[in-house]
Amino acid sequence: MALLDSRRLIFGVIFILSVQLPVYAADQYKLWQTGDIPHEKPHNVNEYEGVAWGTKVVYKVTDPTLTVYQAERNSGIMVLIMPGGGYSLEAIYHEGQDVALALNKQGINAAVLKYRIPNPKTSYKPELAPITDARQALSMLHQMADKYDVNPDKIGVMGFSAGSHLATVASVWPTEHQSERPDFSALIYGVSRLTKENQDWLEKALYFRPMTPQEVKQNTLLAQVNKATPPAFLVHSYDDDVCHVKESTEYAEQLFTHQVPVEMHLYQKGGHGYGLGRKEDGTDTWLALFSTWVKNL
User: Of 35, 37, 103, 158, which shows the fewest CB atoms inside 10 Å?
Assistant: First the structure.
């Protein structure tokens, strides 16, 4: 009888877990084969997970990955998600996996990029590690478009905070390869200006040295917006004390000047780093708004 009761208990636990645990399918790919990572130095730095700002994050990424989540009600759209973290860590769940799964519910395919954290101990050119990974990820998504039933002309980027800076760089820096260019961007509480404060941040977290005059010009992103810049969806809060709301409004103004489609949503409250948003301040509405926007491009 005791054995039977134990079996019933085990079956009951398994049944409960099968009902309560979320089930989703994801395919993970390495961006680069071992030994072929651009600008990589020999090192013994190891990636690890921790907690920052009350959420699970990843530190010291040296082996970047691309994790693809395919939507069941497939719209043919693919969004490459770039989590934030100031280029010192990545909020890979809060601004990555959670967002991908929410997009899937809207019929939008998503892929989370775990890009290399800039580090002079692991890279000869740490400032190029994130953008090189982003371009490789976009190229891979174009190559896999048929596999995931994606329209190759509807592959865009979505970035949060520093990830939004990376998404903006991917949108405005020139490249010879069309497959490395996003077709649209979603920039969530991002960075677009080269203020003194932002330049100090980039020199500390990305370059690890003063930028050259050419690099300053290259990082003056607003000046690089033109009529070929991808359409953008912008989200920001007026009370953001990390990335000023002007980071979004001035980028939107540049897009408007060059007749590039742009939609912007500004929240009175919300602060910074809210990911999918919060019901109490209304920031949880942005993803549904983005879904409508991107499906009508």
Answer: 35
